[in-house]
Write a structure and sequence with these properties.
- This protein is mainly beta and 172 residues long.
- It is built from one helix and twelve strands, in the order H-E-E-E-E-E-E-E-E-E-E-E-E.
- The protein is globular, with a radius of gyration of 20 Å.
- Mean pLDDT is 85; it is low at 16-21.
Length: 172
């Protein structure tokens, strides 16, 4: 009987530690795109293309700034860009102003839902642009050693469907 009580107490203690193990990872930091390790689908950026993400994570909110340098679209040079978006990770839909798809065009309004699924941040975006309605799912998670941020992107629009896997290296 004593052994059963000890076993039950051990199981209870193990169950109580599960939330600590399932804590959300801290994505905060500066992350630089590693082109060699990434899969960009139909995008073919120039060799000097750079994308840096700066993420500041606080309780319930993630502020993400993307800085793109030497951008081109279909071999047409585009201006460098810097966009910032705040994501509430409460699992509820929020209206967010995204970046401009092309220079001179107004920014895009999107409906965004961000939520943690274990150690993965899932961000679902839906909006309308000159190409019609579009939806994107982004999954963010860290490598086992925490040195890389992986962003898996699945997009659907009037221009077609795409999947990408972006690998970012943590910067000092």
């Amino acid at each position: 009987m004593h052994l059963l009580k000890v076993g039950a107490l051990t199981a209870l203690a193990a169950a109580m530690t599960l939330p600590a193990v399932a804590q959300k990872p801290n994505l905060s930091g500066m992350w630089k795109l590693n082109l060699e390790k990434s899969f960009l689908a139909g995008d073919h950026p120039t060799k000097d293309y750079e994308l840096t993400k700066i993420i500041v994570q606080t309780a319930g909110v993630i502020k993400q700034t993307d800085i793109a340098v030497h951008v081109s679209m279909m071999n047409i040079p585009m201006p460098d860009s810097k966009t910032t978006m705040e994501l509430a990770t409460d699992g509820h839909e929020h209206e967010v102003i995204g970046g401009s798809p092309f220079p001179g065009m107004p920014p895009v309004k999107m409906k965004v839902v961000s939520e943690w699924q274990g150690g993965t941040l899932l961000v679902t975006e839906a909006g309308r642009s000159f190409g019609g309605s579009s939806s994107t799912q982004r999954r963010y998670f860290l490598s086992d050693d925490g040195t890389q941020l992986i962003e898996q992107i699945e997009g659907h629009s009037g221009f077609g469907d795409t999947e990408q896997r972006l690998v970012f290296d943590r910067q000092p």
